[in-house]
Amino acid sequence: MVIKVFLASSSGSTAIKKKQQDVVSFLDALKVDYTELDIACNEQNRMWMRQNVPEEKKPPNGIPLPPQIFNEESYCGDYDTFFDAKEDNAVYTFLGLPPPPGSKEAEQADKELNGTLEEHPDDAAEVPVEERNGGSHREEEEEEEEGQAEGESGQADDEETEGDTAPAEEEDEEEAEEEEDHNEEAQAEEEEDQEREDLQSEEEEELQQLEEEEDVEEQEEDEAE
């Protein structure tokens, strides 16, 4: 499977250049094999990219902007969906590739699988016959232990009362730390939203420039005819 990244080498948009660099840099860091296809210098690449991006994934004007990512002929997504996958540690899934052993994505998949087995114990291996036969004996021992525990309940209650008198200052510190973490997360989200708005504005300018260039090319072709 070959990952294809469609780029515009001569793009005048700073936002598009930054997005393209983010994608290829992250793929390099993951050591994922990919091929760069330039749509600025190769009309065939540009037409193929536009034709193979699903209609529901195209912007309102129908002209998708780079970077666009494919796995062979299968469409993976644009920069925004790539960014979301990166934040969720799901880039290999986004690319349609199996995560390598030891990666965060592989560990996350293992945790999800283990959680599924815990929720559906019938899928796990059956309990050995020896353990089932010894169940009644263990129940008797547990009942005896419960009886002993009731006899010592008074002493245990006193110890629990002493243990529950933790200083109120510790609770206040925990609440302050939680509030500080919440504020930091809110600030990070605001900064991220602002960055996305700036990138979107630059994308719109680039899109308008591309449309103007296409209109000029069509006029020149008409005059030549």
What key phrases describe this protein's structure?
225 residues; alpha+beta; Glutaredoxin; 65% helix; elongated
Explain this structure.
This protein has 225 residues and is α+β, with helices and mostly antiparallel strands. It has a domain at 3-109: Glutaredoxin. Helix content is 65%, strand content 8%. The protein contains nine helices and four strands. The protein has helices at 14-30, 43-52, 79-87, 91-95, 104-119, 129-133, 135-151, 153-163, 168-224; strands at residues 3-7, 34-38, 68-71, 74-78. A four-stranded mixed β-sheet has the order 2-1-3-4, with helices on both faces. It comes from Oryzias latipes. InterPro entries: Glut_rich_SH3-bd (IPR006993), SH3BGR (IPR051033), Thioredoxin-like_sf (IPR036249). Belongs to the SH3BGR family. This is SH3 domain binding glutamate-rich protein.
